[in-house]
Amino acid sequence: MKNNKIILLIKGCGFIMKYQEKSFTPELKAKIQDMESALKEHSKILLQENRFIFEEKNLEFHASLDVDGHNHFQPGYWSSIVIGVSEKAVPDSDLINMQLITIWKCVRTVLGLEVSTNIPGSKIIGMFVDETLEELKEELREYIEEFLSEEY
Questions:
Q1: Maximum CA extent, the chain
Q2: Which domain holds residue 42?
Q3: Calpha distance 111→102 (Å, rounded)
Q4: How many structural domains is the chain composed of?
Q5: CA-to-CA dists, residue 23 to 1, 6, 69, angstroms
Q6: Cα end-to-end span (Å), the chain
Q7: Cα–Cα 20 to 30 A to 97, which of 4, 47, 83, 105?
């Protein structure tokens, strides 16, 4: 059986596994949903653990699971964990620092380029983060530690 996964390095996203449409299975969907759920819960824990540290610096800490789309295997679906910091003294201020980790992204491509319409010859592919849950948790922890070590 031909392996339909390709590992890529995407700037800022770490390693991802690329899945062809014929590899979209209920097992893959369950794997994606498990990672999304685990990181959503972890983001809640990060908020609780770090809220007071950031408040002391007059900063607001944000952490959430962001999802665009409804069907994991339809182009346009994109899930990511986002953590960031904004100034507490400025209501509705933009994030002054942010870390985004894409969990799953489903796109339509032609010749390797993402397209938004169904062009003859286009293919649907999915990209899944190729890091373990523990590696992702560590990456988020390191981001927080690095941010807190800087002067703001």
A1: 58
A2: 27-70+79-105+132-149
A3: 22
A4: 1
A5: 12, 12, 20
A6: 54
A7: 105
CA 36 – CA 9 distance, rounded (Å): 21
Calculate the alpha carbon distances from 1 to 5, 19, 23, 127 in Å. 12, 14, 12, 20
Whether the pLDDT of residue 7 is over 70: the answer is: no
| Structural domain includes residue 125 | no
Q: Please give the model's pTM, rounded to 2 decimal places.
A: 0.81
What is the DSSP code (8-state) at residue 144?
H
Whether 145 is in a domain gets the answer yes
Q: What single-letter DSSP state applies at residue 30?
A: H
pLDDT tens-digit map of 34-79: 999 999 999 999 888 888 888 888 888 888 999 999 999 999 999 9
Report, as an integer, the average pLDDT of 11-30: 83
- Is residue 125 within 8 Å of residue 18, measured between CB atoms? yes
What is the Rg, in whole angstroms, of the alpha carbon atoms belonging to the chain?
18
Cα–Cα distance for residue pair 31/29, rounded to 1 Å: 5
